[in-house]
Fold Acetate CoA-transferase subunit alpha.
Amino acid sequence: MQNKRITADKFRELLHDGMSIMFGGFMGVGTPEYLVAEIMRSGVKELTLIGNDTAFVDKGIGPLISNGQVKKVIASHIGTNPETGKKMISGELDVQLVPQGTLAEQIRAGGAGLGGFLTQTGLGTVVEENKQTLLVNGEKWLLEQPLRADLAILLASHADEAGNLTYDLTARNFNPVMALAADVVVAETRDIGALGSIPPVHVITPGALVDHLFMEAQ
């Protein structure tokens, strides 16, 4: 069985300027903060971040925004992080706001290999600008494109050696769907048990989707 454990040094080797990173989390809950710290430590820049929100200045993905390593954010809201708003207004940061359900479905579509999907959310608003619309049975629909990323960083509560993951309550949020939609998937976890230590019925993200496992103490 492949050893999926990865050190901080090896994780940083996966990073490069200009890459796109999906991150789990909802206002920082479910975001792998040790992996975020390693991204900061690496010094990579011009990143595109894809996630529900930019959390807070000092929590979740927020420190990467404050540190000037991000060029674009695709998220459903930024209201809890004033630094994101400041950088957007000044032109330092490109922010693309997406309705939350649409964002989740874009990621799912990217993971499922779909060419896009139709929704009426956002019709007649700024969400519709520069996007294709279609008439279906006489109704207008907005075509949304799928989203994928170079890397997804997840936060799991438990993992086994094969990379099977489970999550704590609402910290699950965007993590499982992002495991499907990135070229490389790294999961931060507080422990890694033997194969079979997670009952199959409790596995939320199967190990086949997880490339690397990261633990704080290495």
